[in-house]
Automatic annotation (TrEMBL):
Entry superkingdom: Eukaryota
Species whose genome carries this gene: Pseudocercospora eumusae
The protein, known as: Uncharacterized protein
Length: 242
């Protein structure tokens, strides 16, 4: 398999059906990610969703949210019926986390950002019984903090998340996740008036993006170049022509 064709765990091809035409792949990935080992449920869901093809986007999103919330209620009820009684977060932390992750992604797309933030905060504060943290929630919170202009908090969290991503065996400094945080750090420096820091960070980011074509993340190279250019222009970091 060539580097360009390599498939990563976070890659997702949303169903090529009419229901998903106006819904993004991120929402699709989060939704189906809540049912990772249930092929029967996924097939049933696909049939159910296709009967709602003609609905407006907002109504489709609400259907997805209703399905997720019902699944969460069902799983919590099953956990409570166990002997001894438990909760989903105690009995299956990862299933609990996947469901709540999908719920906040859908709520974000609905524009319900206060609810999205509360869910992310809950995920950040909750660890599994063996101390596992939801660092993906921290990744999402970085962007929320920047949107709210809470730049000092955002920068601290960005560096924590970046350290995790750079040392993660499936990611590393050139992964899309790490590059997204590096773009955010450039933006933070610009927004706080630290132009020299922004330019230095931009140079480091550019070096990583320029090297993508030769590494395992080669298939993201063109997209990352476009986002780098957009970042440069939007933040006024374009070098003047000589």
């Amino acid at each position: 398999m060539t580097a360009a064709a390599q498939k990563f765990p976070w890659d997702f091809d949303k169903p090529k059906t009419a229901f998903w035409d106006d819904i993004g792949w991120k929402e699709g990935r989060a939704f189906f990610g809540a049912f990772p080992d249930d092929a029967c449920a996924e097939s049933t869901l696909a049939d159910k969703l296709e009967s709602s093809t003609d609905l407006p986007t907002d109504a489709k999103l609400q259907i997805l949210l209703d399905i997720l919330q019902q699944r969460l209620r069902d799983e919590e009820a099953l956990a409570a019926d166990r002997v001894p009684p438990s909760s989903l977060v105690e009995s299956d932390y990862r299933a609990w986390r996947r469901l709540w992750h999908a719920i906040y992604v859908i709520k974000s797309h609905q524009g319900r950002h206060d609810e999205e933030e509360r869910i992310i905060e809950m995920l950040m504060e909750t660890q599994s019984s063996d101390g596992e943290k939801d660092l993906s929630a921290h990744h999402s919170m970085c962007f929320i903090l920047v949107d709210k202009k809470r730049f000092e908090e955002a920068e601290v969290m960005c560096w924590d998340v970046l350290n995790w991503l750079d040392n993660h065996p499936m990611c590393g400094p050139s992964s899309p996740q790490s590059l997204s945080i590096r773009r955010l750090l450039v933006k933070i420096a610009c927004q706080t008036g630290s132009r020299d820091t922004a330019k230095r960070r931009l140079g480091e980011l550019k070096a990583l993006v320029d090297g993508l074509a030769k590494g395992k993340f080669a298939k993201y190279a063109e997209e990352e170049k476009e986002m780098l250019l957009d970042l440069t222009i939007e933040n006024g970091l374009v070098e003047p022509a000589l």
